[in-house]
Specification:
This protein is mostly helical and about 475 residues long. The chain has one domain. It is built from 19 helices and 2 strands. A two-stranded antiparallel sheet has the order 1-2.
Length: about 475
């Protein structure tokens, strides 16, 4: 029986997607209008090209896109919600669903009361934030649509690792040349540099796990051959790249960045060993060595003690983030259900700030992604975002438990670790407000669905059963 060959997205589109991954962190984490505008147009152009090919019948959506329908539905609802925040409503309706928003519009329009007004209090900033959200969702979609084969999945993952390596080397060398300065890479803020490296490390560790063979040496000759393979092969090059990124992370001296990385490694390692029904001895040794070597040896030599010292010296008296967090909660209480509008934080926050935050009028973001999204989009928005992240994490965990394919297990490990790291780091920083980090986080979320749904190998044609699924799933 003849079967129709699956039609994949053009190689040119995939190459442009890889270039976008490399570009994103270079111009200050794309956290400048021109840099972000370029990335935004890049994503829109790729999406239009893919849709054009699809409607012309030249592309067949694969199992990854079809299997990710729950999260795609939530993402669609999120986009619909944030765009509807811009929709002018009769002022009587607005007063009923968000009284504080109606009052703010009335004060801004004094002495004339507007007949119509939106939920969004800053239409200009809101437009930029909404377009960014649209680009993030489209990038997530492109990741699922373009990474259709094992080869493309591996190439994309290694591209992100290479990007992280470049950042780590550049940031580390710059920090060592300027003694006493923390590593920042091409980012303005060392915490965002650390956040980017956390996610690159997670994907790199996932690929390292995907390359484990689990093969046992039955004699000295085989042991020596395996050892030479390890020392000279791609796994050692990948391990060295990860070591460089850990050094860069430590040199950033980011307290929460380092805490998030090592905590997420421990969490993902325990989950990986508990959920993987084919956890090999090599996987156990790898995870143990990562924790011991990276923390004790690399960290001690390159200044982990300075990070620990910064953490020990951190108190409520020396930090103002708790003051900002408290006032942000007050801001949310004024707009509990729908928020003040995506992208409106810097405009609305000063009204709820106090003398303990003298820089309120220059503050563009809360140092807490959860609180900022809650204040800007309300309970409705935070529930939608929670569903998107929660479903993706569940997909990654399910892939770890159900799939026996080494690549699927590695991708799932990377997704669990990357999501965990960003969930921890977001409690004290605003990585998800930085375009390159937010886009990379969308890549991490997509990996969970790719790990769960990418096509199984043909058992009859595979000579190595350990690379096949065990039938579950």
């Amino acid at each position: 029986m003849s079967t129709r060959r699956k039609r994949h997205a053009p190689t040119v589109a995939f190459a442009a997607y890889l270039l976008l991954i490399l570009w994103l962190p270079l111009p200050f984490g794309s956290n400048r209008p021109v840099a972000w505008g370029v990335a935004e147009l890049w994503v829109f152009a790729l999406s239009i090209a893919w849709l054009g090919q699809y409607f012309r019948g030249k592309i067949d959506p694969g199992p990854i896109l079809r299997g990710a329908w729950p999260v795609l539905l939530c993402l669609s609802l999120w986009l619909t919600y944030v765009w509807l925040q811009r929709l002018p409503l009769p002022i009587a309706w607005l007063a009923a669903i968000s009284p504080e928003t109606a009052r703010a519009h009335a004060l801004a329009a004094h002495p004339d009361t507007p007949a119509f007004a939106p939920l969004m209090l800053d239409l200009h900033g809101g437009l930029h934030a909404t377009l960014k959200s649209t680009a993030y969702v489209l990038f997530f979609f492109l990741t699922l649509a373009l990474l259709e084969t094992r080869q493309r999945i591996r190439i994309a993952a290694y591209t992100l690792v290479i990007s992280g390596l470049v950042q780590a080397v550049y940031g580390g060398v710059s920090a060592l040349e300027m003694a006493g300065e923390p590593a920042r890479g091409t980012f303005v803020n060392r915490n965002h540099f650390a956040g980017y490296l956390e996610m690159c490390l997670a994907v790199g560790l996932g690929m390292l796990i995907a390359n484990l063979t689990g093969r046992k040496a039955h004699n000295l000759r085989q042991f020596l051959r395996d050892a030479a393979e390890l020392m000279l092969g791609p796994r050692m090059r990948l391990r060295l790249a990860l070591v460089c990124m850990v050094i860069g992370l430590v040199l950033s001296r980011s307290r929460m960045g380092n805490t998030a990385f090592f905590s997420s490694l421990l969490v993902a390692g325990v989950i990986g060993l508990a959920f993987s029904r084919r956890a090999t001895r090599s996987m156990v040794i790898l995870i143990t060595s990562l924790i011991v070597i990276d923390i004790v040896i690399i960290g001690s030599y390159f200044g982990a003690s300075q990070v620990v010292e910064r953490i020990e010296k951190t108190t409520l008296a020396t930090e103002d983030r708790d003051d900002v967090a408290g006032h942000t909660l007050e801001m949310w209480k004024a707009f509990p259900v729908f928020g003040s509008g995506l992208g409106s934080y810097h405009v609305v926050f000063p009204r709820f700030s106090g003398p303990d935050v003298p820089f309120a009028f220059t503050l563009t973001h809360a140092h807490n992604d959860y609180l900022q999204f809650l204040a800007e989009t309300g309970v409705v928005g935070i529930l939608l975002l929670g569903a998107i992240v929660g479903l993706s994490l569940f997909a990654a965990l399910r892939a770890q438990y159900l799939r026996g394919d080494p690549l699927a297990r590695g991708l799932a490990f990377g997704a669990v670790m990357g999501i965990s790291a960003m969930l921890i780091h977001s409690t004290t920083d605003f990585n998800l407000q930085i375009p390159s980090n937010a886009m990379t986080f969308m890549f991490i979320l997509a990996l969970g669905w790719i790990a769960l749904n990418f096509e199984r190998r043909n058992h009859s044609s595979s000579r190595n059963l350990r690379d096949d699924d065990d039938g579950a799933g």
